[in-house]
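CHAIN AND CONFORMATION:
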Amino acid sequence: MMIRTQIQLTLEQAKRLKKMSKKENKSVAELIRMSVDKMINSDGPITDEMIKQKALSLVGKFQGPSDFSDKHDDYLTETYSS
């Protein structure tokens, strides 16, 4: 059973939803329901603290040059100049 409800979106949200709707071949309503389900099934809205903790959990999980944080621009230039 579905319950009809009304929401207000910003102009930008509406534009992006319509574009996504066409791309995914789904109705705007379906995309909104999917978003609501995703939020309900998570621990609520994603906070800045959650993003920070997720990023920090990745520290040390990848290997690379030990000076990468200091010389990342040099490595990118080297990679894309080749």
Remarks:
- The chain is about 60% helix and 0% strand.
- The radius of gyration is 20 Å.
- Residues 10-58 form one domain.
- The first helix runs from residue 11 to 24.
